[in-house]
Amino acid sequence: MTSLIKKLSEPKTLLSIGIIYTLLITIILLLPASEIPQLRISFVDKIAHVLIHGFLSLIWLWYRFSSDKCHISVKNVFVVLFICFSYGVVIEAAQHWFILSRSYDIFDIVANGFGSLLGLLSYWMFRNRIIQ
Fold it and tell me: Partner of 116 at 20 to 30 A CA spacing, among 1, 19, 63, 83?
């Protein structure tokens, strides 16, 4: 298991995972509403936004700080989280302007923000285990 984590922690592998995950969620989030299964659970879409953006932020934070060249600083963390959060805002705007069956939802953006913070918290909690 340790060798698998070390292999996944290599910058090239993390970059590939980050790009593939970002492309995958972009496709999913831009699907027409008719293509998305409807669940009758309250706030399930907000929970999905939190989890999606939590993992997005975790992956990109892990990639950013996987190299010895980049030290963890408030500025570097802020840049990664800002990019991930901005990505969520752009996706919401694209849903509103380009996908007729989807709409812009400010609460999705709030959930994206919470997800980014969850990704930071997850990275912070597991960074020593990830690095070793």
Answer: 1
Q: Which two tokens stand for residue 24?
A: 């995958």
Task: Report residue 86's pLDDT band, with 50, 70 and 90 as the boundaries.
Answer: very high
**Amino acid identity of 17?**
I
Of the ranges 24-33, 55-64, 66-75, the best mean pLDDT one: 55-64
Helix axes 74-98, 106-131, angle to 10 degrees: 140
- What are the boundaries of each domain within the chain? 2-131
Please list, residue by residue across 49-76, b when 16 or more beta carbons sit within 10 angstroms of its beta carbon and e when fewer do: bbebbbbbbbbbbbbbbbeeeeeeeeee
Alpha-carbon distances, residue 52 vs 10, 47, 73, 84, 131 (angstroms): 22, 9, 24, 11, 23
- Give the distance, in angstroms, between the CA of residue 12 and the centroid of all CA atoms in the same chain: 18
pLDDT at site 111: 95
Which residue, chain included where needed, has tokens 């980049």?
70
